Amino acid sequence: MPLYYFDFHDGCRRSFDDDGQEFPDINAARDEALSTLFNVAKDARPAGDRRDCLTHVSDEAGKVLFRARLSLFPEWLP
Questions:
Q1: Is the alpha carbon torsion for 59, 63, 66, 67 positive or negative?
Q2: pTM
């Protein structure tokens, strides 16, 4: 099975995957990235209410195959 690497950024911290994980295909790796992204975003506590969490999924050659951004921009309405 191919190895996929997952890098995350929550606006303050970055996490780089040096080991990779095996998945049968990019769709399974995508599902894992999205699940982890939600968990990272939930735990992220940057200053203020705004949150912007990112993930990149790369293959063994380092090519980014998938990326996702989860953003929270709360605002008061008049």
A1: positive
A2: 0.81
